[in-house]
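Suppose you are handed only two things: the residues of a chain and a line of SMILES describing zinc ion. What would the bound structure be? This form records exactly that question and the answer produced for it, so the two can be stored side by side and reused later without any lookup.

QUESTION INPUTS
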Amino acid sequence: MSTATVPLPPCPQCAGEHLYGITFRHRTSCPLYERDSATAAADHDRGRGIRDLTDTERTLIRDEYEEPDEGWELAVQFDHAGGIHWRKVVERAALFGPGTVVRSAIRRGADDAA
Ligand SMILES: [Zn+2]
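ANSWER OUTPUT
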């Protein structure tokens, strides 16, 4: 499965390019830039974890990910590794409460390419 490495479309607001995970090269004038930077900074302070998608992140990923099966929900896993702050979209098991059971989120169209 290499779906995690498929680039997302550019930022819908500023056309800033997708870099990795759900990190984009926003223009400083982008209306999403400050909110997205604040989210990244908060993640950075916490180090690593799993949390809900922010509204800004939902805007950025648009409908690029499949809606999870019942009992699962889209979430963000963040970590700091190799000097890079990573955020990626995952599916979180909602059945067991706000837990740590995650699996890769599925990009729309991935099945078509298989
Ligand atoms: Zn932007």
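WHAT STANDS OUT: Helices lie at 33-46, 55-61, 110-113. DSSP finds three helices and six strands in the chain.
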